[in-house]
Amino acid sequence: MSEQMNEIADFITECRLSGKMSRSTISSYQCDLNKLQNYLNEIQITEIAKVTEKVLKNHLSNLANKGYSSATIARNIVSIKALFKHLIKDGIIAIDASENLVAPKVELPKALVLTRRQIEELMRMPDVKTAKGQRDAAMLELMYATGIKVSELIKAKVSDIDMQLGNIECVNDKKERIIPFDKRTKTVLMRYLQDGRRHLIKRTDEELLFINYQGEAMSRQGVWKLVKRYAEQAGIKVPITPEALRHSFAAHLVERGADIEAVQIMMGHVSPISTVRYARENRDYIRDVYDRTH
Fold first, then answer.
1. Is 39 designated active site?
2. Is the whole-model pTM more than 0.70?
3. Where is the domain boundary, 57, 89, 121?
4. Which residue in 23, 73, 184, 215 has the most C-beta neighbors within 10 A?
5. Which among 192, 246, 278, 283 is annotated as catalytic?
6. Full domain range(s) for residue 25
7. Domain for residue 101, yes or no?
8. Catalytic: 246?
């Protein structure tokens, strides 16, 4: 077995033993690094220390020539970066050949991205003089401000919201991420929590953040319907779903210069691009990116 094969195998083993990564993440690492390993074998590089930035870029170009998508190549870059970070940490190499690799941008479907004016019109539609309107306004603001999924929104608990720090904690499929939100969203959430929500809950010990008139959890269909209804009231002609708010959140951040990886972390994509690099110590970095760009 060549040296680079040993190093990759050791890295995958360490990932498994750490207990911090999902099976899908480790599987992605394995798949991506197998491709790298095969390429290194083809060009007869047997020592990981001999892998240069040029070699890695040639490998990625080779993947593109074989028809792999931008998303797949971006995921491969994350896997390669994780490997080299591990090699640096263990003192196996002194120079990180992956440091300057940049993931290609993955374009979002334009039909699902709203303009900022459309977002503003949508946010003005709920009647915030009513409990339901305050709830709906809080839901719309939170979806756009954080990019969370509908499934995460309807499962969110009051305890997941940290008003002092201005963030929401999302746990999905055992993966955790903390997403910051802005002062405007904080104001809308506070209004709902202090007023509208108490008129909707049926139990004083209710944990869910958003509930319907029956005092039960909101359904995915219910959220879809209210987004569609407010979009129609706002005169928005393009097809609107909660996903449109999620994609608009990401697209607007990127448009204003946000770091791609920070946005992917906040989005919580299944790809290692968004999951592996997340850690609690990244919170201040993500908050800085968010405040500067959203």
1. no
2. no
3. 89
4. 73
5. 246
6. 3-89
7. no
8. yes
